[in-house]
Inverse folding.
């Protein structure tokens, strides 16, 4: 197999990857984008996107990603099915293996592999996903105004989601598996102060009921074994996200949970010519609009890097020929 040589490789196809592709192709970098295991990323499991500017009537997640893809294609991005399965960033150009067999040598790499929400794996969760079950209160909370909802989790994310939903919903049940929360003291205080949040300690979810949409949640007290049915139309899983960055371990600097570290205010990683954007490096905001913004940054940073690299190569050639 002769490796394919390209200027700019984009790994992943959510808002970050596609935005990077739009900017990179307009800059003449001839980007090649591999869509990965979930083309369109997390937004493809989001039913309605109502908080992305420019869509006054909202848009469905999958439809929005199709629009992003079409726009990237319009400027000449080479969009391919396939998944990056291994990398070697020890030399230059950067080596990336696709689907375990095809090798690519890339002068610049933009990582936009995103993150995946962690799920509980309980009965009804997958079936009702997008029909009452969600992993993002900021994205979907609006649809549950005046209703009763359940949040699962004990960390800052869960506390934040519960507080956010408390402003919109009639009642919020917060299910905590142990008899204490992992969330920071200030977040816990905030949750405890809100009158319409009820914390159920030592509580786990047994199953989710409902045909067309969520109707109720069966929970169990893991100390007494007693089961209770909560009437709720919304179920928010807030047990964290896992960034899809395993293949870059050992090359790229990450935090303890696997989010890629970028140099503040840029998309630069610790490896020259490798840039990261979107939810693979953002564990704070995790929104489509912020992901798109960092995708733009990554493409501009890659363009600058390639220009400087070209200049250096020309200067070297001139030095050698003298």
């Amino acid at each position: 197999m002769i490796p394919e040589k390209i200027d700019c490789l984009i790994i992943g196809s959510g808002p970050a990857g596609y935005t990077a592709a739009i900017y990179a192709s307009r800059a003449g970098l001839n980007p090649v984008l591999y869509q990965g295991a979930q083309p369109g990323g997390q937004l493809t499991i989001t039913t309605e996107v109502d908080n992305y500017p420019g869509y006054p009537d909202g848009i469905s997640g999958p439809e929005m990603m199709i629009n992003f893809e079409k726009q990237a294609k319009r400027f000449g991005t080479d969009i391919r099915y396939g998944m990056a399965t291994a990398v070697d960033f020890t030399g230059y150009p950067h080596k990336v293996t696709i689907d375990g067999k095809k090798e690519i040598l890339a002068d610049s790499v933009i990582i936009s592999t995103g993150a995946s929400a962690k799920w509980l794996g309980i009965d009804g969760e997958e079936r009702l996903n997008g029909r009452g079950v969600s992993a993002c209160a900021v994205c979907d909370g609006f649809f549950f105004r005046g209703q009763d909802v359940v949040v699962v989790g004990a960390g800052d994310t869960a506390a934040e989601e519960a507080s956010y939903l408390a402003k919109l919903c009639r009642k919020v049940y917060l299910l905590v598996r142990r008899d204490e929360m992992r969330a920071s003291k200030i977040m816990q205080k905030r949750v405890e102060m809100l009158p319409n949040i009820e914390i159920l300690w030592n509580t786990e979810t047994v199953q989710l009921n409902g045909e067309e949409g969520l109707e109720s949640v069966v929970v169990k007290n893991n100390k007494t074994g007693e089961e209770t049915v909560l009437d709720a139309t919304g179920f928010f899983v807030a047990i964290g996200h896992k960034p899809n960055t395993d293949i870059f371990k050992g090359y790229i600097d990450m935090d303890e949970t696997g989010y890629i570290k970028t140099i503040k205010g840029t998309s630069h990683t610790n490896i020259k010519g490798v840039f990261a954007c979107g939810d693979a490096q953002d564990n704070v905001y995790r929104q489509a609009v912020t992901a798109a913004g960092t995708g733009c940054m990554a493409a501009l940073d890659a363009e600058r890097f390639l220009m400087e690299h070209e200049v250096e190569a020309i200067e070297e050639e001139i030095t050698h020929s003298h």
Q: What stands out?
A: The mean pLDDT is 94.
